[in-house]
TrEMBL record:
One of its GO terms (cellular component) is cytosol. Its EC number is 3.1.3.18. It comes from Aeropyrum camini SY1 = JCM 12091. Mg(2+) binds at D14, D16, D183, D187. The lineage of its organism: Archaea, Thermoproteota, Thermoprotei, Desulfurococcales, Desulfurococcaceae. This is Phosphoglycolate phosphatase. Keywords: Carbohydrate metabolism, Hydrolase, Magnesium, Metal-binding. It is an enzyme of class 3 (hydrolase). InterPro entries: HAD-like_sf (IPR036412), HAD_sf (IPR023214), PGPase (IPR006382). PROSITE patterns: COF_2. Belongs to the archaeal SPP-like hydrolase family. Its cofactor is Mg(2+).
Length: 239
């Protein structure tokens, strides 16, 4: 990995499943603090990239001590240098949201803090329900993104890779300088484009297939393992 370490200036980090205890859990793992401290010590710029709403993601970054840009709503909105950047425009119609909810979804509490997306959580975790809902959304010309936690409905033109790409342009960095770590289908495009990529040991099959490195450990413990193996060790609190 030595050759890679020198070329990485940015770490693009997913949140749920990547900084949490494991995929499917919402609780942060203590190793997420070690990840943040290590990246700061290595002077790597971080980009949090998530399906969560912007306020949630920005708040998490503040409390983890991460000062880099934040990409939220699966790439539809970002905060870069204190400026809010809207990458998507508009929002899917309420009528479409209602049609999807009738299939057995409930709205995320964060929807009132979202600008462009709706995040809908399946009441029963049946892949067929997610597929059926995604078909309805795509037929109406909107984008459906499954994160492993919720189905996100957004206008065309979003996606985490689009959001991270916009941020990279604004900070003067290229994809080849990025180490991306993520667990979900909604991270696959970023994992494929980044100079180097990793997935926690319990990531989705899609993410593990694309990532250059799959950690042995799940969640944030796996993310710390990836960062230490790719960027070298360094001062990180024990976790
Ligand atoms: O908000 C979600 O559904 C998942 O969020 P993530 O992109 O940070 O994994
Ligand atoms: Mg995730």
């Amino acid at each position: 990995m030595q050759g890679v370490a020198g070329s990485i200036r940015v770490a693009a980090l997913d949140i749920d499943g990547t900084l949490t205890e494991r995929r499917g859990a919402a609780r942060l793992d203590v190793c997420s603090i070690a990840v943040a401290r290590l990246l700061n010590a290595l002077r790597v710029t971080t980009i949090l990239m998530t399906g969560n709403s912007l306020p949630v993601a920005v708040g998490l970054g503040v409390y983890l001590g991460l000062e880099g840009p934040v990409v939220a709503e699966n790439g539809c909105v970002a905060l870069v240098g204190g400026e809010r950047v809207h990458i998507c425009s508009g929002r899917p119609p309420e009528s479409l949201v209602r049609r999807v909810m009738e299939l057995g979804f409930r709205p995320s509490w964060q929807n009132e803090y979202r600008y462009h997306e709706y995040s809908l959580i399946p009441v029963r975790r049946e892949p067929s329900v997610v597929e059926k809902a995604s078909d309805i959304v795509e037929r109406e010309g909107y984008r459906a993104i499954w994160s492993g936690y919720a189905l996100h409905i957004q206008p065309p033109g979003g996606g985490k890779a689009r959001g991270v790409g916009e941020v990279l342009e604004r900070i003067g960095a290229g994809w080849s300088e990025v180490l991306a770590v993520g667990d979900g289908e909604n991270d696959v495009e970023v994992l494929a484009r980044a100079g180097y990529s990793g997935a926690p040991g319990d990531a989705s099959e899609q993410a593990k297939r694309v990532a250059k490195l799959v950690a042995r450990s799940p969640g944030a413990r796996g993310t710390l393992e990836i960062i230490q193996r790719v960027l070298g060790g360094g001062p990180a609190p024990a976790c």
